[in-house]
Amino acid sequence: MRVLHVHSGNLYGGVEAILVTLARCQDLYPQMESHFALCFEERLSEELLVAGAPVYLLGKARIRQPRSVLRGRRMLRDLVAGGSFDLGICHSGWSQAIFGPVIHGAGLPLVVWFHNPTNGRNWLDRWGSFTEPELALCNSEFTAKAVSKQYPHVRAEVVYCPVANPPASSDENRKVKRAELQTPEDATVIIQVSRMEAWKGHALHLEALSQIKELPDWICWQVGGTQRPQEARYREHIERLSRRLGIAERIRFLDQRSDVQSLLRAADIYCQPNAGPEPFGIAFVEALSAGLPVVTTAIGGATEIVDDSCGILAPSADPAALAASLRRLIQDPALRLRLGNAGPERARKLCDPLTQMQRLNEVLASTK
Question: Is CB count within 10 Å lower at the N or C end of the chain?
């Protein structure tokens, strides 16, 4: 089965990580051949090409530039006409709105992979809904509930994101990373890896840490670069907040990193207390795979990933409760070890790449 994935490709986050995983794991499941049509030559296109995936460029389509949209549609129409694809998958409402009509018009089954809940009130969602898909792929039960309300007559299937197992690590890696980040070897490292967006809960995280600053020997690594101007402004706000709370010297603000797996392996606790619901949460799965206990808020897709076998779900918008959870883990190494040891199996159960690629193939094959 030849599948054409259509996406913008100008940013890099969870959606892009999924596409790269599909490309890197192609050999695990050769029955499903993944091709990728993108509008922008950025990090995503580079990583897909390195993985050996077929990548087609549609030009920089921008909604505010109608001619660029028409050009992108024409290029996709030519690609589909000569590509012998079995179906097309649009990732996100943007791709559905712009390119869904082309796939539909070519007589191919149109699948929309929803990576976020949709309520139909956003103008882009309303535009996309004019081209109803044959199948709605959803990254979680949380997302599927919202999608089913907007598309009550469209079959919705949940396919958890495939997440590759991390490479083996060593004590030497731990020493190297901690030395690089001016972090003592015996410190308890709390790490968060996420986009610099307010709903990811950085502020709540820092407020909770300020309530346990009397505890010695903890350090927090905040990993995540800025990709848009508003993210840069938010990053500045968070840095100012750390200074105002009196914990700036214990926070390491890192930019976008290519060694996230190594950083996770060198940390002790993963904490991402979302202020808004996470549609799924690949970062949580990666942290579990790395053997870290996960602390997050009990909202959204995170509740499908984290349970009391591998982490702690704290009440949302409650810095005191979050601080208590972090205090407990910092002061109880045995608890950290028990929860962390359960993480890799939990991650495999949810997101084993071969299992999820087989599941994806079965769902797509039923749509052809």
Answer: C
